[in-house]
Amino acid sequence: MTPYQQGGEPETIAITSFDGCALVASQFGRPDKGAIILSPGGGQTRHAWSGAAFAFAREGYIVLCADLRGHGDSDRAPGGTYSYTDYARDALVLSDWMGRRTGVKPHFIGASLGGVAALVAAGKIRQDGFASLTLVDVAPKISEHGFCSIRNFMLGAAKNGFENVSEAAAFLSKHFPRPNTENRSSGGTSGLQKNLRQGEDGRWRWHWDPAFVETLHLEPAEFERELTDAAKSLIIPVHFMRAGNSELVTQEAAAHFRDIAPHIHFTEIKGAQHMLTGDQNDIFVDAALDYLARPEFRRTPGGN
């Protein structure tokens, strides 16, 4: 008998973070090749990474997908206040938990907010907290217009909610049409429903705490300064993936990141856009697997 899931449905685990906040996660696979933590973006749940998790597990990795605090099935932040530092400390808690359970230091793959958390963790809190860091469409410099558009979208209908899932799908498609994903407004809402919960009043609301958008905010200049400082301190292997059609991370932002952290490996995913509520992150899997197949990450028999 082993503690690892052999196949089929993932194991659901609750991991207590530094302040008592329970982070709910799904675990897939076995640690034959290594361990991976997949962290979703703001407004997503861990299910956004499910397809990717199965793909990584088939390749021989043990994979942990966790809901961010204030998202999905994880606890909301004590006091209703959210910070990038708290998300970073959560990322390290998950890494330490995975390391204790498997004896393997995990690779961390974070999309958007999940990536910001890991960048802060590795650049400002503990430089060796992960075996490697893959950042999916997140960089120190971001488009102020793109950031404001996303923030306004997330605040829209956050409290009032929607009459049904189809109304939420239409709202999402109106604000951010996605040619590379299912048509949410014409019935393709199965993935989106995992990002919504129905309240006692019968209305559907996003599956995250509205306070996370209201309190997790830095002015773009301060955000860039903080993340630039973190990026300059990175010493672990880093893979930076930019969505080719990203409205948040521009080509200028990508060039800036590569200038301040010249050792990072860069991949641009053609046709991809910034991941938002209800989207799947599977489009990034092949590039992530190619990076993790590099010789320096290969495990030796009996080694880490």
Automatic annotation (TrEMBL):
Region (Disordered): 176-198
Composition bias, Polar residues: 180-196
Domain Serine aminopeptidase S33: 32-280
Domain of life: Bacteria
Key words, A-Z: Hydrolase
Matches recorded under SUPFAM superfamilies: alpha/beta-Hydrolases (SSF53474)
A GO term, aspect molecular function: hydrolase activity
InterPro entries: AB_hydrolase_fold, Carboxylesterase_BioH, Hydrolase_4
Protein name: Alpha/beta hydrolase
Lineage: Bacteria, Pseudomonadati, Pseudomonadota, Alphaproteobacteria, Parvularculales
